[in-house]
């Protein structure tokens, strides 16, 4: 979906260094210093406007969260969520997911969230999907042993592709729902896209997978 350009976004992001990490490569292995505690660290790749992650941060003050989003015109809305709620356990990074290994060391991240990622439906674009094997290797390099990925989408094709990709990589499928909103799953926090798609009657797919 095309997003309206916000030429002022970069300046606003730079104005809140307490929430938007300007030089994340300087904190490799030291994210506990950024948060000033040693709580578990969860990251969301493609955090969008931040509704999901800010909701998670409010609900779980004993966990630290970092939202990663490449488009500054989008992540600036996530910043507004943090400012409004004054969330000390949530930070943002305006960076590319391809570079995660530059910002975290092995075992520094406890869990990764992938919510409503771009499905890149054309076969020739498969390598761009955030559940493609090269991304799974990047995640493995920064997660703790037996770290988890939690994945949600409304795109059946992407979900089926991702389940195959996870299995072929050797991940353990711990939880799979083919209709999340009609399941008995407790504690679901919706993203902006999720609410929009659910209102249209779209089925929401969710899974949890674990490295072995």
Could you list some keywords that capture this structure?
S-adenosyl-L-methionine, 7-stranded mixed beta sheet, alpha/beta, SAM-dependent_MTases_sf, tRNA (guanine(46)-N7)-methyltransferase activity, single chain, 7 helices, globular, 7 strands, transferase, EC 2.1.1.33, 212 residues
Q: Rg, please? A: 16 Å
Low-confidence stretches: none
The averaged pLDDT comes out at 95
The proportion of residues forming helix, as a percent range, comes to 25-40%
- H/E element order: HHEHEHEEHEHEHE
What is the strand content?
A: 15-25%
Number of strands: 7
Question: What oligomeric assembly is this protein in?
Answer: single chain
Overall SS class: alpha/beta
**Count of runs of 4 or more consecutive helical residues:** 7
Strand arrangement within the widest β-sheet reads 3-2-1-4-5-7-6
Taking the alpha carbons of the first and last residues, their distance comes to 35 Å
Pathway: tRNA modification; N(7)-methylguanine-tRNA biosynthesis
Keywords: Methyltransferase, S-adenosyl-L-methionine, Transferase, tRNA processing
Family: Belongs to the class I-like SAM-binding methyltransferase superfamily. TrmB family.
GO molecular function, one term: tRNA (guanine(46)-N7)-methyltransferase activity
């Amino acid at each position: 979906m095309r997003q309206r350009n916000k030429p002022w976004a970069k300046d606003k992001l730079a104005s809140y260094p307490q929430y938007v990490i300007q030089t994340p490569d300087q904190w490799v292995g030291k994210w506990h210093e950024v948060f000033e505690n040693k709580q578990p660290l969860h990251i969301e790749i493609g955090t969008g406007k931040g509704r999901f992650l800010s909701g998670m941060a409010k609900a779980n003050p004993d966990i630290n969260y970092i939202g990663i989003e490449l488009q500054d015109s989008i992540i600036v809305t996530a910043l507004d969520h943090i400012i409004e709620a004054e969330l000390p356990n949530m930070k943002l990074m305006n960076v590319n997911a391809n570079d995660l290994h530059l910002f975290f060391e092995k075992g520094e991240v406890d869990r990764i969230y992938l919510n409503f990622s771009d499905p890149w439906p054309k076969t020739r674009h498969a390598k761009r999907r955030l559940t493609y094997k090269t991304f799974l290797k990047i995640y493995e390099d920064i997660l703790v042993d037996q770290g988890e990925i939690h994945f949600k989408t409304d795109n059946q094709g992407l979900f089926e592709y991702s389940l195959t990709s996870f299995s072929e990589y050797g991940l353990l499928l711990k939880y799979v729902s083919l209709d999340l909103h009609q399941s008995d799953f407790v504690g679901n926090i919706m993203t902006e896209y999720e609410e929009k798609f659910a209102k249209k009657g779209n089925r929401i797919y969710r899974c949890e997978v674990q490295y072995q």
